[in-house]
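quick one before i forget lol
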Amino acid sequence: MKVQIFIPCFIDQLYPQTAFNMVKVLEKACCEVHYNGNQTCCGQPAFNAGYWDEAREVCSKFIKDFDTADYIVCPSASCVGFIRNYYSKLFENTAAHQQVQYLSNRIYEFTEFLTAVLKIEHFGAVLNGTATYHDSCAALRECRIKDGPRKLLSHVKGLKLIEMNDTDTCCGFGGTFAVKFDAISVAMADQKVSNANATNADYIISTDMSCLMHLDGYIQNKGLSIKTMHIADVLAGGWEA
């Protein structure tokens, strides 16, 4: 199966290993992975900041960059949710509207693609320890992703998964929200990390690196021992022979 991957800006710049690990897992699933080096941003930051005309230019480029892909896979429910749910608003009553509909049917968040399209849950990954899972707002509310990541983690050898309280509560990041309302954002991160710590977990795992980046910043500032991991990094780790 041929797959085009879309790598979000922050993963490209700050967490490239997560992108490589996603490719590693997809190739283990016998996918033929392609990367269009011309790709840039999905347009979400500009859209959320209110710059819709500028966002439309970026989004138009995205549509062209991926117009021939059968499947587009992305390690971020935030980007996927934006493309699925808001491109239609940006291109309403335009010539690109049909292309947008076609695009939204071909783009998948990484774990969603594994479980819903490939229908594979077991990758032979190994991670010794205890983890708790964070449902990102984008994954849960925009992409309707909940059980898939948990099924994938349930097959990771050595990993015990414990649900934290209020797992579906926002972590406080929200892109520019964390900058404009920093005090509220930090308080929300405190609540999320406190709930995770209450499970005595070694790791907080999620589909979204943006959430994990925010939580990790809080964790490091407080000198806590709990770690954050993207699920692609978990599934690519310590494979059994």
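fyi The longest strand covers residues 126-133.
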